[in-house]
Design a protein that fits this description.
The protein is mainly alpha-helical. The chain is 73% helix and 0% strand.
Length: 271
């Protein structure tokens, strides 16, 4: 019996024709693709070449400019450390983290918000100092009215005054004695190598003191809530879950952010 008699179509010739048709389409597409991708009036683009070399300087001023650029790049690479260790940022970010822990809100506000808030308050607190640096150091140097050394000394002076104002003498004596530095007659004679770490630990101590003061009212609320729950026999209920709404209510009623941020800004005595 044949396939037509059994009612089954002939599949092999049809499949063979489809395969040949697909291969023909691929072949035609491969021939037409280069013609379509390259326009007739295409102009080759020039490829730039980069050459890096060391040559002879025509004057001593060229060497000075190169050294100044290297010094500027070094300062830019140290900018995050300068921002953190020589400004009000350290005290602010530590106090805000203590405040979040005292309230028991865990990750609210998140770290990004606390760091961003500390950063912009730092810009606000340090703005008079940075304005003084720009006016007396950066602008004269850009106008070629002062040398690099003179501009650096002018920029260092207001920052030094800010750090000395917020540094304890005990911390200064610690690093001065450790480095075998003779006791200077004036505070302006203290080297920056001694002043910067002394300023940092003074800021940390101040931040810890403020954090303790912030902890006390919230700790009282926790103790009161725990005592009430214990007297009611609700020992299985976490006191933190009950005390958190009362902490938030107290913080909002006293306008906590205004008090904390305002007190922190006034504690530096810059503005």
């Amino acid at each position: 019996m044949s396939d037509e008699f059994n009612g089954r179509p002939k599949a092999k010739p049809i499949m063979a024709n489809r395969t040949q048709l697909i291969w023909a389409l691929f072949l035609i597409g491969g021939l037409l693709l280069p013609m379509m991708s390259e326009p007739a009036d295409a102009v080759p683009l020039p490829i730039p070449s980069i050459n890096i070399g060391v040559g002879e300087a025509e004057s001593p001023g060229d060497v000075a400019v190169v050294l100044q650029i290297v010094a500027l790049l070094t300062i830019l690479s140290l900018a995050p450390a300068i921002l953190i260790l020589m400004t009000s940022f350290t005290r602010l970010v530590v106090v805000f983290h203590f405040l979040r822990q005292a309230m028991g809100t865990q990750n609210s506000p998140p770290n990004q918000v606390l760091i961003g808030l500390s950063l912009f308050i730092t810009f606000f607190v340090m703005s008079p100092i940075w304005h003084h640096v720009y006016t007396n150091a950066v602008r004269p140097y850009m106008d070629k009215e002062a040398t690099y050394t003179e501009a650096f000394e002018q920029a260092k002076e207001p920052v030094r005054k800010f750090m000395l104002k917020n540094t304890r003498e005990k911390d200064l004596a610690l690093f001065a004695n450790t480095a075998n530095v003779k006791r200077p007659l004036k505070k302006n004679d203290i080297p920056m190598l001694v002043l910067i770490p002394a300023f940092v630990i003074s800021e940390l101590k101040t931040a810890f003191i403020i954090g303790f003061v912030l902890y006390v009212p919230f700790l009282v609320i926790d103790m009161v809530v725990a005592s009430v729950l214990l007297s009611m026999g609700m020992m299985m209920l976490p006191p933190v879950m009950i005390s958190l709404p009362f902490k938030l209510m107290l913080f909002v009623l006293v306008d906590g952010w205004n008090l904390v941020v305002g007190s922190m800004i006034n504690s530096f005595g810059v503005i």
